[in-house]
Structure formats: C-alpha cells, structure tokens
Amino acid sequence: MSTEQTAAAEGDAYEQLLERVERISNVGNAAGILRWDQEVVMPEDGTPARAKQLSTLSSLSHELLTAEETGELLEELEGDELSAEQAAVVREVRRQYDRATSVPGELVEEISETTANAHPVWMEAREEDDFSTFAPTLETLVELKREYAEHIDPDADPYAVLFADYEPYLDLETAERVLERLRDELVPLIEAIEESDAELATDAFAGEFDDDDQEALARDVLDALGYDWGRGRLDTAPHPFSSGTQFDARVTTRFDESDLLGSITSTIHEFGHANYTLGLPDDHYGTPLGEARDLTVHESQSRLWENHVGRSRPFWEFFLPTARERFSDLEEVSPEEAYEAANQVYDDNLIRVEADELTYHLHIVIRFEIERDLVSGDLDVEDVPQAWNDKYEEYLGVRPDTDAEGALQDIHWSHGSFGYFPTYSLGSVLAAQLYDAAEEDLGDLDDRIREGEFDDLNGWLREHVHAHGKQYTTPDLVEEATGESYTADYFLEYAKSKYGELYDLE
C-alpha cells in the first residue's frame, strides 16, 4: 500500500470512529433529556416506563461503545501519526472502551434500571423521614457498583475505580490529600470565626419572598451574567442541577420563600455549569473535543461564578439595585450588608446545599468518608445514619435530629453516584486557582464586576478552559490555563484572606 493509501485508510478509520462516537454521544444526550424531564416535569407515576426507557438507551450506548467494530477501529489507529486533537479523541474513546468492555451489558442495564427506580424511593424516604425505606435500595446499589468496579479492575480499590468515573485524571490519592488539607486548615479557621466578636449583617435578607418574584430575579441574574436563552431555559427542581450540550444547556434552581439569597446563589452556581457547557466548541459536538473535561473542571466553573463573583463585594454593589426593584423589603439593605449576609459562616447548618463557602467542605469530607467506607465494606448500610450523625457532631459540632436533614438529604446515592462528592471540593480548589490566573492576565476584576461587565472574565474562561473540551487531561488543562500544577494553595489563601477580613481575625 502506498503512503497516500495508508494515510487515506487511517483517515477513513478515524472518520469511522468519529461517526460511531457521535452516535454514542447522541444516545447519551437523549438519555440526559429524559433524566432532566424526570427531575423537572415528569408525572410522579411515570417512573416505571422511564426506568425502562433509560435502561434501553443505556444498553444501546453500551452496545455501540463495546461493539467489535469500535475495538477494531481503535486498534487500527493505535500508533498512527495523528494530530493532537485526533490523538485526544482516540485517547478518550480508548479509555471509555476499555472500561465499558470490562462490564457486562446486563450489569450496565441493571444499574440503569435500578437507579431510575431508586429516585422515587429516595424521595419517599426523605418525605417520610425514614432511612430504612431507602436502605434496601441503597444496599443493592452499593453491591451493583462494587460488582461494576470489580469488572473494571479487580486489583484496584473499588472506590478508586468509581471515583475515576467522575475524575479520571486526578487520582484518588490527590483527592484524599486535598480533602485532608482542607479539613486540617479549615477547621481551625472556622473555630476562630466562631470565637470572633465580629457582628455581620446576617439578617440582611430576612423576610418572606414570593416564589414568582424570586423566579423573576433569578432570570435577572442570568441576564446580567450573560446566559444564552436561545440555548437554555430556567426551571425548578428539588435538587438544583444543570444539564445539556453546547446547543441546549438548561438550568434549574429552587425557591424558598424565607431564603432569597439561597435561590440567587443556587442560580449563579448552575449558571456556571451551563456557561461551561455552552462554551464548548459547536463544531466538535458529539465528540470528546466538544465535551466538558470531567467534574473537577465542571465544578470549578460553577464555584468560580458562585463564590468568586456572586459572593463578592463588587457583585452586590452591582446587583443589589436590581434585587431592590423586585423586593422593596431590601430598600434599606446596603451592598456591604448584602455582602456580609452572603458570606456569613453558619455554625449550626446541617444541609450541604445551604452551607456557607467554608463549612461546605466539611460536608463533603463527611460524605466522602462514608461512601468510601460503604464501598469498601467497612460500613454497613444500616449504620449510615449513625455514622453520618457522629461525623457531623465531630466535624461541625451539630447533630441531625432526622434522617431527612441527615443521610437522606442528597440525591447522589440514589443515582449510584459513589465517588462524585469529592469533585465538589476539588472544583472549589481549582476555581480559586483559575480566578487568580485570570486576574494575572486581565488585571483586577473588581471594577468590571462592579459595573456588571463579565465579558472579559468569560472570554478568558472560554479561551483557557471551555474551548479545549477534553483535548487535555485535567492536570494538563490546569497547567495550560494557569501555568502551574493543580494546588490547594490559592483556595486556602483566598479563604483565609477573605474571611479573616470579614471576621476581624489576626
């Protein structure tokens, strides 16, 4: 075969692989819409059919990925001279293929159907405040996920295998090291805050706030940040989330008439996720180059917008007048008071999604430690509430009175998402590193935020993070964007500086 013929054959193989990957992606994206529908608008009795629909799509995706043709195309491309982008696509598909071919299709289908059926069971258990109602389902999910991990790598720590589903390129040792450092350095900072005599304006957002008006304000904040309504929408869900593609990235939030601030920060958080998704390259839709670089990076985007922008003093100088237009009760609230209220540290909060920026990470550490012990077999499902409550008392000085505000508060385990929780803290750490790098390049961002000018920051994120899709591994993407290796230094420096100033700490 001539050189030209060889090149043509390689090109054909790559194009065939790309076509197959796009089909797999479209099946997954269709399943994503069904999951969004289940969480947002599906009738509550629709679960049995939805479980089977999702199971079928999961099985179809698995069959396409693990088909003999996929393996043959990957083998054909092995060792070929590919461009950097082509090599990245092959790397990502190879990783997915190797993991998927290790797992029997029947197990994939069983996990999908079990998780779809688990959602209403978890909701009922939470509503009835009864962990024992959910315990058998959780036991089944833990067993299924152990079996899943065993198929992928029988010699590895099963929790490490599951963690790699969400963060394949930062290893579990890195996650453990970062979480331990956050625990060790944030606990004394939080204790110092509790002992501080500083009096923050914690009641700045006290009052009753109509849900419809809160939704209007949520739309205001999305408008201000530059959300593309032509490719998105806002809805409500019990557990806020964002999902979709660069052509359709949806945001959900929730409203509590006594918690206006919560709906604002939740909306900004989910905007960060959707904004990342919308920033992925249109022309690479359906391929790894048009997909987000896993959950640490995804969470960095939501945390950057929520905390470094939405909880900043300049943001409240900019946005408070808009909030006053919707709620006259805020007429006497100053930007400084709004800023203080947005950054108060709660010493008695039990709920992760309502946690402040600092104690949030101890909520994550607790979940990480429990699910790691669950998967390893060091903790029985029936003992989860006790372990949960003991850890809350040890790390946060508070103890849940109910399962609903304890071990049943999160949706993740009903999805079988063991290994997901650490990425929240890993993403917060990366958010601080990225924000610092953006300011290095753009200069101080406070004046821009104060004027409601977010284009420069978003442009920097588009260029340095979003546009790359999965071309780089997580460590390489961090290095490309910031010029440094992944580190918790910037987050801890930011936290100590910000909260030291707020609470008059030495």
Give an overview in words:
- Strands 1-3-2 form a three-stranded mixed beta sheet.
- It has 20 helices and three strands.
- Helices cover 64% and strands 3% of the residues.
- The protein has 506 residues and is mainly α.
- It has two domains: 3-155, no CATH class; 172-502, Neurolysin, domain 3, CATH 1.10.1370.30.
CATH architecture of the largest domain: Orthogonal Bundle
Backbone CA Rg: 23 Å
**Share in β-strands:** under 5%
Helix-strand makeup class: mainly alpha
Structural topology:
Layout: H1 3-40, H2 47-66, H3 68-77, H4 84-100, H5 105-128, H6 131-152, H7 158-166, H8 172-195, H9 211-225, E1 234-236, E2 242-245, E3 248-253, H10 260-278, H11 294-309, H12 313-326, H13 335-342, H14 360-376, H15 384-396, H16 422-442, H17 446-450, H18 455-464, H19 474-482, H20 489-502
Parallel strand pairs: 1-3
Antiparallel strand pairs: 2-3
Brief overview, please?
The protein has 506 residues and is mainly alpha-helical. 64% of the residues lie in helices and 3% in strands.
Keywords:
single chain; 506 residues; mainly alpha; Neurolysin, domain 3; 2 domains; three-stranded mixed beta sheet; 20 helices; 64% helix; disordered N terminus
